[in-house]
Amino acid sequence: MIISDYLYGEFEIDDVLAELISSKPVQRLKGIHQGGASYLVNSRWNVTRYEHSVGVMLLIKQLGGSLEEQIAGLLHDVSHTAFSHVIDFVLENKAEDYHEEIFIDVINKSEIPIILKKYNFDYEHLLFNTTTWKLLEQPAPDLCADRIDYTLRDMYVYGQASLEEIQKFINDIIVHQGKMCLQSLERAEWFVKTYYQEVLDFFLDPLNIYAYDKLSQTLKLALDKKIIALTDFLKEDHELIELMNSSNDRQVQSLLKQLHPYVKVRVSQSEFDIHQKKKTRLIDPLLYFENQLIRASELSEDVREMNVAAKEKFQQGVFVKIL
Predict the structure, then answer these.
(1) Residues 6 or more apart whose Cβ sits within 8 Å of residue 134
(2) 8 A C-beta contact, residue 36 and residue 87
(3) Cβ-contact 188, 286 below 8 angstroms
(4) Quick check: 3 and 13 in contact, CB under 8 A?
């Protein structure tokens, strides 16, 4: 199977990957927006979990990762619920990891184990031992394929990064002692800046904050009224909205109608309607410098300053006034 991606180009992939891509759990991700509620208030914020999952797989492949790690990359987000991380606000889950909590159950109830067994893979070892894969996931502030792809993909689609810049960054990545690192301080500074455009300027955009708050209120109410059940979150975004709309419940429909592209909001600490905090996300890439691995912040004042400012903003949260 030949697969093409607007960030990484064209690749020939193994049969097992092609079959997994065609499976229901992976295809469902085409209907799950990575930005959660954001697409409801800005139609341009429309990157899907499917695009991201395929991208993570291809980035791992490009960096020389094994077929097993490519499979793990493709499947790492199959348990994401409708509207992605909005579920964490509905359930007041500050770790924002509900999809990880249900991952094993979602895999076991799908056709994925059958597909992997067909190709002689031990699916439990491959998917349930997350520490095995060093390229796919790493704790912050390290680089990893997941963190890199969602940043580059969103920022490219939303006009904050060019393909030329992205290609220069990807070409600068090497793997040393099992760690993903960069060779150029310039590329490290570029990625730190771009990452904070993603997790601060986009994730904490006041319009995004509004959308998360309003949709989580709506979903909580729909759950309380038993219009939807927790299991319904394993549907696609539009299916969950259709369920709520079809209920004819006036309160739920009134809240849904407040999610539209003409909402006007602004940041205001003195007079606000919403105060929201999200999980702190910091980045400090490793550099291969003079035959050793060293943090970018040890070499760059810019990186140190960006990290201090980011930490303060995450701790403070965002205060939003609805106009």
Answers:
(1) 175, 178, 179, 180
(2) no
(3) no
(4) yes
Whether omega before 141 lies within 30 degrees of 0, making that bond cis, reads yes
pLDDT (tens digit per residue) in 25-57? 999 999 999 999 999 999 999 999 999 999 999
pLDDT digits (tens, 9 = 90+) for 216-275: 999 999 999 999 999 999 999 999 999 999 998 999 999 999 999 999 999 999 999 999
Residues 63, 64, 70, 76, CA torsion sign: negative
DSSP string for 147-173: HHHHHHHHHHHTTSS-HHHHHHHHHHE
Q: What pLDDT is attached to residue 302?
A: 98
pLDDT over 70, % of the chain: 100
Q: In the predicted model, is pLDDT for residue 131 greater than 90?
A: no
Closest CA to 187 of 296, 282, 283, 290: 296
What is the spatial distance between Cα 192 and Cα 173, in angstroms, rounded to a whole number? 14
pTM of the full predicted structure? Answer: 0.97
Pairing of strands 265-267, 292-295: unpaired
What span, in angstroms and rounded, lies between the C-alpha atoms of 319 and 19?
46
What is the residue whose two structure tokens read 């990625």?
A: 191
Give the residue among 159, 251, 224 at the shortest CA–CA distance from 198.
Answer: 159
pLDDT over 90 at 129, yes or no: no
Tokens of 160: 């904050």
Helix (H) / strand (E) containing 274: strand 274-276
- d(CA 167, CA 165) in angstroms, rounded, equals 5
The pairing of beta strand 318-322 with beta strand 274-276: antiparallel
Distance (Å) of CA 288 to CA 189, 283, 294: 14, 16, 7
